[in-house]
Amino acid sequence: MKPTLFVLAAGMGSRYGGLKQLDGLGPNGETIMDYSIYDAIRGGFGKVVFVIRHTFEADFREKILSKYESKIPVELVFQELEYLPKGFTLNPERTKPFGTNHALLMGKEVINEPFAVINADDFYGKESYAILADALTKMDGKTNEYCMVGYRLGNTLSESGSVARGVCQKDAKENLTTVVERTKIERKEDGLVKFEENGEWTAVDENSPVSMNMWGFTPDYFQHSEKAFIEFLKENENNIKAEFFIPLVVNNLIVDGTATCKVLDTPSKWFGVTYADDRQSVVDKIQDLINKGEYPSKLF
Predict the structure, then answer these.
(1) Within a domain: 196
(2) What pTM was estimated for this model as a whole?
(3) Does the pLDDT of residue 181 top 90, yes or no?
(4) Which residues contact 10 (CB under 8 A, 6 or more apart)?
């Protein structure tokens, strides 16, 4: 069975001021997500599941889904703040979404095979999809053995400012041991990549693996996530801004010895529109890939 691609797109409407502003960066108005789906199909994925919010379902079906439906099976699931485990009610003061691992939980009813998780607005590169699809195919039938695509830090920087990255440590078997969130990383005038902490800049190897939220799981991860979400809700009953992120859950499963997570190296360069100034650079990078023959000028 081919693996499934699970696309986290519930934040789309709010971030872009509505789907009508979904940014066309390719020569025929292609979005970053169009390139992701194209790469997933040729990389070996067999189905795409999108998690969105009900408010933009009609728009999403018309403008987005209609493009892919003839190319690959697609399904929609929905993330809403009030979708909580039995016995929990939403704090009326909470307006902030619960985060990536809450969005992931929404796929439980429709995903029964190994699956990848990606952000809708990140350009991950064709090699990453092929590497991940291959790893997921080999994970079929296994439990508690996950993976993530570890980008080389130097391939994920912005020319417009600093970035936040989860810098990963791994053991001799290429398994993830820790993820440390560095909130300010940039390439300095001396050419070195450094992170800032408490006013001090420290050099970091630009080949260090970093997480760009491109994960591979087997369906048992849903059970672990449900259990972890209940604990999270108990601990953060009065914290209306706490978020339930994927690295948090993965980290806890690794630390307590429940699961392992293989770090898959990729030569792909990640890019995305972190800053408004990044937009033209992304347009240029996509055009460059088209010029090199990696993508057709019109995708769908």
Answers:
(1) no
(2) 0.93
(3) no
(4) 51, 52, 53, 78, 79, 97, 103
